[in-house]
Design goal:
- The chain is an alpha/beta fold and 349 residues long.
- It has two domains: 2-66, no CATH class; 76-332, Rossmann fold, CATH 3.40.50.300.
- Helix content is 35%, strand content 23%.
- It is built from twelve helices and 14 strands.
- It has helices spanning 27-39, 56-66, 98-111, 128-132, 172-184, 204-212, 226-236, 238-242, 272-284, 298-306, 310-313, 318-332, and strands spanning 2-7, 12-19, 46-53, 85-91, 116-120, 139-141, 144-146, 149-150, 153-157, 193-197, 217-222, 246-257, 264-265, 290-296.
- Strands 4, 5, 8, 9, 10, 11, 12, 13 and 14 form a nine-stranded mixed beta sheet that branches.
- Helix 3 (98-111) packs across helix 12 (318-332), helix 5 crosses helix 6 and helix 7 packs parallel to helix 9 (272-284).
- The longest helix has 15 residues, at 318-332.
- It is elongated, with a radius of gyration of 26 Å.
- Bound molecules: adenosine-5'-triphosphate (ATP).
- Adenosine-5'-triphosphate (ATP) binds at residues 91, 94-100, 122, 125, 127, 200, 252-253, 294, 296-297, 300-301, 304, 319.
- Binds and transfers iron-sulfur (Fe-S) clusters to target apoproteins. Can hydrolyze ATP.
- It holds the Pfam family ParA.
- Keywords: ATP-binding, Hydrolase, Iron, Iron-sulfur, Metal-binding, Nucleotide-binding.
- Residues 1-49 form the MIP18 family-like domain.
Length: 349
């Protein structure tokens, strides 16, 4: 951080120091520490400290140096020309079926011929490996982590890095670091789509995703219950602060078809999914569609427990049909152009 030291013939010393950022809260401390350290050198009569600010490149070089000359690995999905679509699956409340929807969408997309990865970032409720039937653990090759896969879906989960069923009591910075590692140090290969199962609510992980992958699109899962809808809308509206796009809302547990008389029973009421979509459309000022309504299906729950996603074991069940349709719709649209260079060249008139 030392830019220059100039020593005058009569012991006047001028030290120039680079701060990492302009508003560095340590500037006074750095000035006084430098002054007192230099003053102790025999022959020094006066010390003046001048501060400058590092350029982007100098900051990067310093970080590399501090990491022992290992450049930080880039997150491939965060590169401007990445072709991988990233969906962060969010919900307001827990237990609305976010993980079940994530797993079934992933399995459906893989069955449709896409290369799919899932990051299970649901720190407290990591259930993706069980729901997909992943039994292997990640392995290490050189310094890359190879993710295990099941049903043609590569999976990495917080649960794979904790002993047994130990609860994860990580705080914000650790979660951020873990997520960064999942994205940068895991060898995903070329993916068409990456689904991220976020913890419920608007927590640290959602903010980390926004920082690490600003181009990730948010997929909101809710139930038809209006009380759940309000919370889901709050979780979704974080997108307005992080400038991310909400790709749409999925209403899960929309209704139960009576196995005896085929009557539709609205167990959790109705209208929640549409209410969230409308509310988010209003607050974000951009259309947020209701992508679909997935009915309650006992077999979907059973499939989650046994690691056999319903979309594969019973593709014609009505919840499977809906999930497969949503999967297709999500991948039907190309990745947004946000953050991507358009390679435009000005031409002479
Ligand atoms: N459409 C559905 N029909 C029947 N059961 C469902 C359906 N969706 C989810 N479930 C069941 O509801 C329970 C909660 O689902 P899941 O774990 O997917 O929710 P979640 O929102 O990810 O929860 P959390 O974020 O708290 O971990 C599970 O037992 C799951 O099998």
């Amino acid at each position: 951080m030392v830019k220059d030291v100039a020593i005058g013939p009569d012991g006047d010393v001028r030290v120039e120091i680079y701060l990492t950022v302009a508003g560095c809260p340590m500037r006074d401390r750095i000035t006084s520490d430098t002054t007192s350290a230099v003053k102790q050198v025999p022959g020094v009569s006066t010390v003046s400290v001048e501060l400058d600010v590092m350029s982007e490149q100098q900051r990067r070089d310093l970080q590399t140096k501090l990491r022992g000359n290992q450049p930080e690995r880039e997150i491939p999905f965060a590169k401007p020309n990445s072709l991988t679509k990233v969906f962060a699956v969010a919900s307001g409340k827990g237990g609305v079926g976010k993980s079940s929807v994530t797993v079934n969408l992933a399995a459906a997309m893989a069955a449709q011929g896409h290369k799919v990865g899932v990051v299970d970032a649901d720190i407290y409720g990591h259930s993706v490996p069980r729901m997909l039937g992943v039994t292997d653990r990640p392995t290490k090759v050189a310094d890359m982590i190879m993710p295990p896969s099941a049903k043609d879906v590569k999976v990495i989960s917080v649960g794979m890095f904790t002993a047994g069923n130990a609860p994860v009591v990580w705080r914000g910075p650790m979660l951020h670091r873990a997520l960064q590692q999942f994205l940068a140090d895991v060898y995903w290969g070329d993916l068409d789509v990456l689904l991220m199962d976020l913890p419920p609510g608007t927590g640290d992980v959602a903010i980390s995703v926004a920082q690490l992958l600003p181009s990730a699109e948010i997929l909101v899962v809710t139930t038809p219950q209006l009380a759940a809808a309000e919370v889901a809308e709050r979780a979704g509206s974080i997108a307005s602060q992080t400038h991310q796009r909400i790709v749409g809302v999925i209403e899960n547990m929309a209704y139960l078809t009576c196995p005896h008389c085929d009557e539709r029973i609205e167990v959790f009421g109705s209208g929640g999914g549409q209410a969230v979509a409308d509310g988010l459309t209003r607050s974000l000022g951009a259309k947020v569609p209701l992508l679909g309504q997935v009915p309650i299906d006992v077999d979907l729950r059973v499939g989650g427990d046994s690691g056999e996603p319903l979309v594969l074991s019973e593709p014609s069940a009505s919840s499977s049909v809906e999930l497969r349709r949503i999967a297709k719709e999500l991948l039907g649209t190309g990745r947004g152009l946000a953050g991507r260079p358009l390679n435009l060249t000005p031409v002479a008139r």
